[in-house]
């Protein structure tokens, strides 16, 4: 007889309340009588004896459901990598000639003192993440809490800190580990995350690529204007998200699937194919290509 455990529990609780008042067993359904008797026999329970507590009835302990907005649910929905990335400094662009003589555009990324400063865990922070610091900062320009943070990791004060989330606890890197340019292999793909150049307040032609107004006769000082932006009587308003003049740039941008052309651990630089957002001297977060993860990485145990 394949019945759920919850049905057994309900009927046994019902029998427990009846037996406390010395009532008959006939009030339980005929189907339940045989079921309860079978369960009592299976667990060596005597019907003539009164059940001491409902906790004596066997049941399956249910787990607390994971809500959609919880940190664990958010972490499970993300596509996470199995190792952290590096923090580089953009030094400019150059050309690169491969073995076939092709001329390729390349961006020079300098790897400066990359060290693991802290490891975040589910119990403390709700995620598994490796905090990587790069560069150097004078101690007199660092606050006392930050100095204590670096002292606990036994590393020098860093100019830039960032977190790289990883899939599981086993992917965390020991604190104090130095990461070099050979963290990435030549030929693999990487993603570069950086802040774009700030352009300030710009018009619609530069910000959104509008063609502008009529440049012939009849147009008076309205060549670069946006034109009409509102509606008629209905709905008599401008919809949210309308492309208009405003601040341009200074936003986080990710360029995906850039090929590593060269990686030199001794000189501390990476050469990636193509362009990377940001100005010269800005910090760039370099990680394994998220969209191509698992298809191009070389399976080598680094740590």
Task: Output the keywords.
6-stranded antiparallel β-barrel, 303 residues, alpha+beta, disordered C terminus, extended, single chain, Elongation Factor Tu (Ef-tu), domain 3
Topology:
Layout: H1 5-20, H2 30-42, H3 71-77, E1 86-97, E2 103-111, E3 114-120, H4 122-125, E4 129-134, H5 144-153, E5 160-165, E6 178-179, E7 189-195, E8 198-202, H6 204-208, E9 246-249, E10 252-264, E11 269-273, E12 283-288
Overview of this structure, please?
The strands form three sheets. The chain has a six-stranded antiparallel beta barrel with strand order 1-2-11-10-7-12. A four-stranded antiparallel sheet has the order 5-4-3-6. It is extended, with a radius of gyration of 33 Å. With 303 residues, it is of the alpha+beta class. Helix content is 18%, strand content 27%. It contains six helices and twelve strands. Residues 20-28 and 294-303 have low confidence and may be disordered. It has a domain at 77-201 and 247-288: Elongation Factor Tu (Ef-tu), domain 3 (Beta Barrel). It has helices at 5-20, 30-42, 71-77, 122-125, 144-153, 204-208; strands at 86-97, 103-111, 114-120, 129-134, 160-165, 178-179, 189-195, 198-202, 246-249, 252-264, 269-273, 283-288. Residues 214-235 have a biased composition (Polar residues). One of its GO terms (cellular component) is mitochondrial large ribosomal subunit. It is found in: Mitochondrion. Keywords: Mitochondrion, Ribonucleoprotein, Ribosomal protein, Transit peptide.
């Amino acid at each position: 007889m394949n019945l759920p455990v919850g049905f057994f529990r309900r009927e046994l609780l019902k029998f427990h309340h009846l037996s406390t008042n010395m009532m008959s067993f006939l009030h339980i359904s005929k189907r339940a009588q045989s079921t309860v008797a079978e369960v009592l026999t299976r667990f060596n329970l005597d019907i003539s004896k009164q059940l001491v507590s409902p906790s004596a009835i066997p049941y399956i302990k249910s787990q607390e459901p994971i809500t959609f907005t919880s940190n664990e649910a958010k972490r499970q929905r993300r596509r996470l990598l199995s190792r952290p990335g590096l923090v580089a400094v953009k030094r400019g662009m150059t050309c690169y000639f491969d073995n076939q003589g092709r001329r390729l555009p390349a961006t020079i990324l300098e790897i400066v003192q990359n060290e693991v400063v802290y490891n975040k865990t589910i119990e403390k922070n709700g995620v598994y993440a490796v905090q990587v610091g790069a560069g150097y900062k004078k101690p007199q320009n660092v606050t006392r809490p930050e100095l204590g943070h670096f002292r606990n990791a036994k590393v020098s004060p860093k100019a830039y800190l960032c977190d790289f989330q990883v899939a599981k606890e086993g992917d965390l890197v020991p604190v104090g580990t130095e990461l070099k340019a050979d963290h990435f292999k030549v030929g693999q793909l990487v993603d570069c995350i950086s802040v774009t150049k700030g352009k300030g307040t710009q018009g619609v032609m530069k910000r959104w690529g509008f063609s502008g107004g009529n440049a012939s006769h009849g147009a008076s000082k309205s060549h670069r204007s946006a034109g009409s932006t509102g509606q008629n009587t209905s709905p008599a308003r401008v919809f949210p998200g309308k492309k208009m003049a405003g601040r341009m740039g200074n936003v986080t941008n990710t360029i995906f699937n850039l090929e590593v052309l060269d990686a030199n651990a001794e000189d501390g630089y990476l050469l990636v194919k193509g362009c990377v957002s940001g100005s010269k001297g800005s910090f760039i977060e370099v990680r394994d290509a998220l969209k191509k993860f698992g298809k191009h990485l070389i399976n080598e145990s680094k740590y």
